[in-house]
Amino acid sequence: MKLYIYLALFLMASFVVAQAQNPNSPDDQPNIQPKKLPKGATVPENQATPQGDTNKPLVGSAGPGESSSKDSMVDFNAQPKPKEPGPDEAKQYPFDPHRAVKDIEVGEFYLKKQNYRAALDRFTDALHYKPNDAIATYRLAQTLEKLDLSNQAYQSYQHYLEILPEGEYAKDARAAMQRIAPRLNANSTETEKQVAHDLEVGEVFLAQNKFEAAFGRFEEAVRLSPENPVACFRLAESLKGLQRLDEARLYYKKYLNMQPKGHDAGEARRQVEQINLVLGKERG
């Protein structure tokens, strides 16, 4: 009898110890259901979401009334977008004479075809990969002269003579400099130099069909020199590329008013007529 009493006491003691070690057995756990949120509400980021909550927000989602995209936030402290650098300012080029030779060959082909912008792009590229190449320098000077960029052409002819004073094209280079000299302003101001640079860089952008970048350069040139006929014509060309035809026509006409018999007068008239046909407006 005593044995049964001792056994019963032992079992009761074991049960008490087990309950003390695990007070909340599965049967004793409260049945807690996740609290459902009102429609459209979200849980704050610093608040844990109960497992199984169907209203848990997606990672990165915003609260009510806020945008979930960082791109839609306006930065009022952002600086104005700078003018796109020119092709010679954008990157460093490795020395690659083989690439330069190929560029010169293609550039000469374009020069013969009177595709002066494409030629300008190629000769400029050649000089990136092989600075001071005499042939590329001379061909660049010829191209710049054809594009009415007299100051830059004169400088390139002069540079060729510095490289090869008695070179194959030395006589032609000197003759070209004498031909261009009367059109030069010997006392060019910093503004005039900036206009000349913008025109040259803009021409290269036009050759690459980068009309927005070309427009930026020519717009600045016209702002600095409103009565510059070359700048007006080039601005019209970039506006045409951007399909801003009404504005392009205005600058073609402005060029014609300044240079009715100019180098690009025939092309300007042709473009005005084409734009009139496209826009359905009367000739004039």
Structural write-up:
Among the domains are: 97-183, Tetratricopeptide repeat domain (Serine Threonine Protein Phosphatase 5, Tetratricopeptide repeat, Alpha Horseshoe); 197-279, Serine Threonine Protein Phosphatase 5, Tetratricopeptide repeat (Alpha Horseshoe). With 284 residues, it is mostly helical. Helices cover 57% and strands 0% of the residues. The radius of gyration is 38 Å and the shape is extended. The protein has helices at 2-21, 97-112, 116-129, 134-146, 150-163, 170-180, 190-207, 211-224, 229-241, 245-258, 265-279. The chain contains 11 helices and no strands. The termini are far apart. Residues 22-81 have low confidence and may be disordered.
